[in-house]
Amino acid sequence: MSGQQARQAAQTIHVAGEWRAALSGATREILDPADAEPLALVAEGDERDADAAVAAARRAFDEGPWPRTSAAERAALLHRVADLLVRDREELGLLESRDAGKTLEEGRVDIDCVADAFRYFAGLVAGESAGRVVDAGSPDIHSVVVYEPVGVCALITPWNYPLLQASWKIAPALAAGNTFVIKPSEITPMTTVALIELLAEAGLPTGVAGVVTGPGHSVGARLAAHPGVDLVSFTGGLVSGTKVAQAAALGVKKVALELGGKNPNVVFADACATDEGFDTAVDQALNAAFIHSGQVCSAGSRLIVEESVKERFVAELARRAGRIRLGRGTEKGVECGPMISAEQRARTEAYVASALAEGAVLRCGGKRPEPDGTRPADGYFYEPTVLDGCHREMKVVREEVFGPVLTVETFRTEDEAVALANDTEYGLAGGVWSADAGRARRVAGRLRHGTVWINDFHPYLPQAEWGGFGKSGIGRELGPAGLAEYREAKHVYQNLAPQPVRWFAG
């Protein structure tokens, strides 16, 4: 059965190589956030479906060939997956656009990045040696550290970048030789289901990959607590991530958590000293805050700008933000799509209302746009919003909004800028804008965030680790450390000339 047929039949649970409906028979309608119309019907799995998927993944790991294949074979399969992603780029990009509400071009870029992730981890393991030799100080001792797969991995992904976040987990998990069960977000599962089909087409052995579509409170909770799971990797909100960690702790599982951020974008006056510098910094501040309607864990939602240029900077920023073209992501000329759901939009509206009640000044946005030809009346649209006059005590400054809302704070000195940027319980990412290279590197070195951009915002590299400090999570994705998350180190010590120890006299 093809991925499309499986989706049409609401058979979106994949166990032991077979597509099936939920054991309960329950289904869920997936809505297009641009117009709230049904996009697909998927299986609504529960704990029993999770148990079946874990059992299949357990058998595949304990008895199947995948954990025992060579690194070269695993790398070759990952390259085949990347080739299939390139082949299906348009179809998958469109599906990601409609499912998550982003623009079609964003969807296409996401697919490119997914292919890059598979190729990176393929390359990382392809040239590895059999282990790290350890010098024991004797020619009679052969000592080596080898890296083995963890086992069965439970992968839980968010709704904002469904396929990209899945690839950041699936690619290293497979590269290391693990089996897995993935639970995509219950509201954006479509491209993950499609990816499982591509893995099978690429030749992945039966049972290695499983997917259970369904809600976090049942499927996700069961996977985190399941005794047959060896590792849990979760990307999502702080509250849910804490529950996952607590459940996994009872089984002493390995846990990797990426829990979002409240990310500062620090702009020094010298970055705006020329017209070109000013234009670039404003443009990048817009990208930092409003890409994908601000529904990005690394969104630069806190603009921290030097007081001497603040008024000019914010005025231009608000002017441009007010001209962002909202609409259905597949429509030509649209720059920003809808929010993911009515609930997420209402949550954003509540944050804006609280900010205004606490004294923030609305510079643009702050409301739902009028419907037009590209914005259906029932779509979950919300105007890009700039809130001036903000301070650290405001709820909108402290908490992750996950919507198109940018707050503005000011500073006078470098020390004050650093203090403001670090004054958060999160620590995922941040940006520094300055024409003074020494100052930029100095400030970047003082920021307690997992990724710091200098004179840029948002790019990432698959070969560089991604993750945060503080309540932004534990562990890392991407880079060598991202592969290490899915491995266990084993020390093998071989005595080539064993002799009696004579420790005991008898």
TrEMBL record:
Active-site residues (renumbered): E258
Keyword Protease: no
Pathway as given in its UniProt record: Amine and polyamine biosynthesis; betaine biosynthesis via choline pathway; betaine from betaine aldehyde: step 1/1
InterPro entries per the UniProt record, alphabetical: Ald_DH/histidinol_DH, Ald_DH_C, Ald_DH_CS_CYS, Ald_DH_CS_GLU, Ald_DH_N, Aldehyde_DH_dom
Keyword terms, alphabetized: NAD, Oxidoreductase
Protein family according to the UniProt entry: Belongs to the aldehyde dehydrogenase family.
Gene3D superfamilies: Aldehyde Dehydrogenase, Chain A, domain 1 (3.40.605.10), Aldehyde Dehydrogenase, Chain A, domain 2 (3.40.309.10)
Any Pfam family: Aldedh
Keyword set includes NAD: yes
UniProt name for this protein: Aldehyde dehydrogenase family protein
Organism for this UniProt entry: Streptomyces gibsoniae
